[in-house]
Specification:
- This protein is mostly beta strands and 319 residues long.
- The chain has two helices and 24 strands.
- The strands form six sheets. The chain has a five-stranded antiparallel beta sheet. Strands 21-3-24-23-22 form a five-stranded mixed beta sheet.
- Strand 5 and strand 6 (89-92) form a beta hairpin.
- The longest helix is centred in the N-terminal third of the chain and has 13 residues, at 15-27.
- It is globular, with a radius of gyration of 19 Å.
- It starts with 7 loop residues before the first strand and ends in a 5-residue tail after the last helix.
Length: 319
């Protein structure tokens, strides 16, 4: 993401999070730390004209409640975060297996996360909007029974947010959000870690003509406002980037073809789709072309997140 001038810095500390994990590590006789590489080439946007059908290949077990939002974390061991209509958060691996039970402080929305090493402790961090509208970071480690809630910005009533993994020195996310006080202003910045200090640095404000309803990080890493009523997210690959959209429960290539999801042998595509996210940096498992996750009701009374193979997007011919 491209930014200009620094304006504001709000500091929070990760000491409690690292300490809590460290105590559990001692009881568990230790756990390895990891460093995550986030440098990726800037991809070229692809455009499609033909209709597309993509297969559903796997999914979670039936979920306890309806899903309102989902997001992937970057890094060598990606995690899928799922937000329920109750405000509870649950995390899954790419096999669809639950890493924790639903819980934590109630949240409204979540955006792209990242995994970092803090004092030798690996933590997966997601920016979230709490139920009261304040911004926070949800921190997860395999030794924890539930994610830790870390305050980020307390004096806001946030309406929406978007994020991407940052490749800046010490930066965890590029973050954009807008508030009830200034719904037409997109506030851009970075969430950074310095030792055990977690902070948000505001670097840009962009004014829209109308109240903002969504934002996303495009193929060039630039924070962009979404059209009204449309959720936009990008599936990047090594050489290209596919902008995808979710509108009225239907998945499509952004400003292009509708995407039909084909049911798998034992898994059914949800209809309508409540939430969607994409991940390209999959260094293990059976997703060589990346993966798209979509959430919704797959059968009467049954909610799931399913994984979609995007090979038809990454190998399709360009216009």
């Amino acid at each position: 993401m491209t930014f200009k001038r620094p304006r504001l810095r709000a500091d929070r500390r990760l000491v409690n999070a690292v300490g809590a994990v460290g105590l559990i590590f001692l009881a568990a006789c230790g756990a390895p730390s990891s460093n995550v590489e986030t440098d990726t080439p800037v991809p070229e946007t692809r455009v499609f004209s033909d209709s597309l059908a993509l297969p559903v290949v796997w999914g979670t077990q039936p979920l306890p409640d309806a899903v309102t939002d989902i997001a992937f974390s970057g890094g060598s061991s990606p995690v899928l975060a799922v937000v329920f209509d109750t405000g509870a958060l649950q995390l899954f691996d790419l096999n669809g297996d639950a890493l924790i039970e639903p819980g934590g402080l109630p949240i409204q929305a979540i955006a792209t996360g990242n995994t970092v090493s803090v004092d030798g402790t690996p933590l997966t961090l997601f920016p979230v909007i709490r139920e009261n509208g304040t911004l926070a970071v949800s921190a997860y480690n395999a030794a924890l029974e539930a994610p830790l809630d870390l305050p980020l910005i307390d004096d806001v009533n946030t309406l929406g947010l978007c994020a991407s993994v940052s490749d800046g020195d010490g930066a965890v996310f590029n973050l954009g959000y807008w508030t009830a006080t200034e719904p037409e202003i997109l506030i851009e910045g970075t969430v950074d870690i310095d030792g055990t200090d977690l902070s948000f640095t505001e670097v840009e404000r962009t004014k829209a003509d109308d109240p903002i309803t969504g934002c996303y990080v495009d193929a060039g890493g630039v924070l962009t406002m979404s059209p009204t009523g449309v959720t936009v997210f990008v599936l990047p690959t090594e050489t290209s980037a596919v902008p995808l959209a979710l509108e009225n429960g239907v998945l499509s290539v952004f400003q292009g073809s509708e995407i039909t999801l084909r049911d798998g042998i034992s898994i059914t595509a949800p209809s309508p789709i409540n939430a969607a996210s994409a991940l390209s940096d999959v260094r293990f498992g059976g997703y060589p072309d990346g993966v798209i996750a979509v959430a919704g009701r797959t059968r009467p009374g049954l909610d799931q997140v399913v994984f979609v193979e995007p090979g038809g997007l990454t190998t399709a011919n360009l216009d």
